[in-house]
Amino acid sequence: MTLARRAPRGLSLVLLVLAQPALALDLAWPDGSERVIARAEPRASVPLALGPFAQGAVPTTSAEGALVEEVWQVPGANGGTAPLFGLLRDQLTAQGYEITFSCTDLVCGGFDFRYALPIAGGPAMYVDLGDFQYLAATRETDAGPERISLTVSHGGELGYAHLARITPQDATPPVVTPSTRVAGLSAGPGLIASLVTEGHAVLDDLSFATGASALSDRRYDSLVTLADWLAEETDRRVVLVGHTDAEGALESNIALSRARAEAVRSALIETLGADPGRIEAAGVGYLSPRAANTRPEGREANRRVEVVLLSD
Known about the structure:
The chain contains seven helices and 13 strands. By secondary structure, it is of the alpha+beta class.
């Protein structure tokens, strides 16, 4: 069940109050923060990271128990993820949680780390692969260990936080209250916020086979969001720009990056009904990296397709 709640003005408290012997969790969020997903499961198994991506996998431990999962969108995140992450981390440690692992974007493993874990996707949760922070933490209770995972990122002027809390099995899941808020583009998805305010955005959920230009056959929330926005903003034009890592010759990488951008353009037009006259495709190979190509996680972050907003 997906529910939503808008936080009141001023520092807001989300009270996840569980039956004893579990402890309550009280987090203060910045003014204007909005909880856009709240989901509870009485029985769940959630992987928590024990370390960064290495040797083809993220080392994890399985947290078993009652799950409460939330996604928050927080305004005024122009300064990146550090302020929001620090605010939440400090509150968790003050309430008795011990951080068992913490990392940042490329140190975590970038794309491989983010998609190895069940972190919520867009448009509710946006993860910038070049700027996110993660932690796993635990707190002992009379009923057993209570575990938390927290992922914080930002896009445009919005911060995003994904919080998963797993309590001992005999704890009663918290009650979450539904809202009359209607989800949609007015919620300010990170991709569109970044596109409008910064002029470009990364389509981070796309999946290509190594060395191939064809998109994997599945639904991509970033493309749905972009197609819906283009349908509403009929005077807007965009260009899809493919990027690669620095392995191989520049000429072949430019060809591959353009082919990937063309594949994304085709998906928007043929599957989602976007206007072909308002979408261009280009490829720049490895000429515009967002991370160093000297490390595997940097090369993974550089293999991407971005959408760039053109002038009217």
